[in-house]
Amino acid sequence: xxxxxxxxxxxxxxxxxxxxxxVVGLVILFFLxxxxxxxxxxxxxxxxxxxxxAWKPEELEEASDLVVTGQIAAPGRTxxxxxxxxxxxxxxxxxxxxxxxxxxxxxxxTEECYTDNFGMTLWTQEGYLPAEVGNCYLFFLKKYDxxxxxxxxxxxxxxxxxxxxxPEDTETFSADLQNAVTAEDRDFFQLGPDGDLDEYARWYAxxxxxxxxxx
Length: 215
Fold this sequence. Notes:
This protein is an alpha+beta fold. It has four helices and ten strands, in the order αβαβββββββββαα. The strands form two sheets. Strands 2, 3, 4, 5, 8, 9 and 10 form a seven-stranded antiparallel sheet that branches. Strands 1-7-6 form a three-stranded mixed sheet, with no helix packed on it.
């Protein structure tokens, strides 16, 4: 028996298996990143100059320059500057509830978070998680000043309290969430682990009822 030929074929088989597993792993990682699913979420210390704009849900519209519903065009892109990092996201407007915009407009938003380690780590503030492709949202947006480095772009008012995922099945949706909030609701809200689930549910119920008529 030619043992050298046997060992070579065995080595090639192991090599092929390793290559296939590597490709499968990379494909899975690619789709996890595109779906905005992270293996680790870490907190960024809020900027000292950052101010709270709305202290209760009734103040959201007044604190906003735009109130719109829309969908995310593509996964947010992390921008890494010398002193700041953030995610730049494009929102396609479906309906304008308040402010100067029109259906079909593309709004460029800055989301106060960014990814690291090939997209496996998300750095964020409080309970904010970036908006995901394939979902509809209601956004309360503030425009940057004309002399800002971000002029022409917007940002969600007060992090997670300016972003609300719209349920797909609005016919059977119930906004009565205040006494029955669960971990599943956190996943639906796309609220990070450091977000106040009970408080966000209260704001969510108000927003769905007053702006979309969902009771």
